[in-house]
Amino acid sequence: MNSNNAGLATRDQTVDSSSGTSYVRRFSQEGSRYRWEGVDLKKYKEEGTHFKSVTRQNLFSDESLQPCELRYFEIEPGGHSTFEKHVHTHAIIILRGRGRAIVGDSMEQVQAFDLVEVPSRTWHQLQAADDEALGFVCQVPCERDRPIRPTDAERQALSEHPTLGGIIRL
Amino acid sequence: MNSNNAGLATRDQTVDSSSGTSYVRRFSQEGSRYRWEGVDLKKYKEEGTHFKSVTRQNLFSDESLQPCELRYFEIEPGGHSTFEKHVHTHAIIILRGRGRAIVGDSMEQVQAFDLVEVPSRTWHQLQAADDEALGFVCQVPCERDRPIRPTDAERQALSEHPTLGGIIRL
Q1: Partners of A45 in beta bridges
Q2: Which terminus of chain B has fewer Cβ atoms in its 10 Å neighbourhood, N or C?
């Protein structure tokens, strides 16, 4: 027991902010979706039809404060992110649910708190399980290149891949 | 049901990596502690006695890939991080447990998935509840200044703060 505990009059209060300023954005669930107060629910991408049932929330609003962003993506059951690659990397922490991470030539089942590293210039896609949403935080550099999609020739080769051909959603 | 599901022969396998390369670091619990395969358990800081019962895990090993790091800190019940400030900011996601975030003049109770933003040059400390660990991910810029601790005069003023005086652990 810490000796400072003697003074903990505010121990059971949810918030005690003498300045009135809050530095906490509280987590909640809206229906089945993970949400945070004051954080907008956004489209996964402004354009494109190569994904299914994905939403985005940019967790820390003032992106000028750090050279990276932390975004939360939630993929509904049966949904998937765009199959794509880019020069920048992804550092991903799964927050909820189950699904698959396709990265390069590998496909791995993932679940809550697993980490996924997407290297530079490497094809990747995240897919939710058919019966459960997949939610994850993804760190990216604020300054980053735009994703590219497979060419027709690459799509053909990917569809014939011995293990991933039937799994990738293009 | 996605039409691609017809080909999901590997659906129930944990890993199907045709290249043998894994991009996933799996989460597990060792005793009560959150751990990840291949991630070292480190001291919170190499020196200093101003904290109590805190460990650190740097989740993504190749820190050259992005201009920020994601570290996981776990504070045992009754423990706390160093009371300090610095020019760089923190973007924090609570992953487990309950505790308090002291930031500037505010003290707020936090729990799993709440977000905490620590602005530049702002005193802060995280404290675990007495009966539960507090685990959180903290994003920081790779290039950052060293924390500073309160001077004797600042310690005196802090100890007399009307709401935080009995709570801050110096």
Answers
A1: none
A2: N
- Give yes or no: A138 in active site: yes
pTM over 0.90: no
Q: Residue B25: beta bridge partners?
A: A115
Tokens 């920048």, located at residue: A88
Catalytic residue chosen out of the listed positions B124, B138, B150, B168: B138
The residue written with tokens 């017809």 in the block is B6
DSSP helix/strand/coil, B4: helix
* Residues in a beta bridge with A135: A74, A96
Q: What is the mean pLDDT of chain A?
A: 88
* Residue A56: CA count within 13 A, CB half-sphere: 17
pLDDT band with cut points at 50, 70 and 90 for residue B21 = confident
d(CA B124, CA A60): 18
Whether the pLDDT of residue B4 is over 50: the answer is: no
CA separation for the pair B87, B145 (Å, rounded): 6
Do residues A123 and A102 make contact, with C-beta atoms less than 8 angstroms apart?
yes
Cβ contact (<8 Å) for A27 and B116? no
